[in-house]
Amino acid sequence: MVSTQPILSATGLTMEFRGFVAVKDVTLSVNEGTIHALIGPNGAGKTTVFNLLTKFLTPTRGQISFRGNDITGLKPAEVARLGLVRSFQISAVFPHLTVLDNVRVALQRPKNLATQFWLPFSSLSVLDDRALELIDAVNLSAYAHLTASELSYGRKRALEIATTLALDPAMLLLDEPMAGMGHEDIGRIADLIRRVAKNRTVLMVEHNLNVVADLCDRVTVLARGEILSDGSYATVSADPRVREAYMGTEHE
Prior knowledge:
Elements: E1 6-17, E2 20-31, E3 35-39, H1 46-53, E4 61-66, E5 69-70, H2 76-82, E6 84-86, H3 99-108, H4 128-137, H5 153-165, E7 171-175, H6 183-196, E8 201-205, H7 209-215, E9 218-223, E10 226-231, H8 233-237, H9 240-250
Parallel strand pairs: 3-8, 3-9, 6-7, 7-8
Antiparallel strand pairs: 1-2, 1-4, 4-5, 9-10
Helix pairs in contact: 3-4, 3-5, 5-6
């Protein structure tokens, strides 16, 4: 359900690298239950903002709050345990494990099995029901016993989403989920994101503007590390500054 209450917010977020300002005074609010896109031309600072929000970088200045709690000083694993989980631009699955085993590995931590290394591998069978539910949720049931290396690129991304869902996140951050995909895979992953977002919040960095227009409730546009525009897709796409910086060149 779409809410007007922010689940994730950033105020005055700034990131400097040896005098170069990659992100400058970014103030961002993501409402609970929405699909929110972060877009902009290459070099706009999108991935840096993502890394700041998920604590892979520590901001030079600014504050980040998740569910009303200040998470600015936390580590990536700590924010993940709070329910803020991200994917990466490059698919991060174990290529030589089966689809089922990849998801079972992801389920070990929330089930407190990750540190019980003395248990036999067969003990992970208790995770099978939940793992198969997640695999079905991303339309990979027919591929459960194939190794990840045998999957198409789009299905590998679907598997990665299944492994992030294994952590039962309240909010999912997707870094260019459609990158490198053909038309058929793009449609499949877009449908998957729509289903996933029915009971959680999604923030995504995405270059495919057709996907953004179709999926997202709200769009924030970055240019040169600063917010250029924010609002519905219709609002930001009509902004002449945005068209000049990004969207106009995209459709030429």
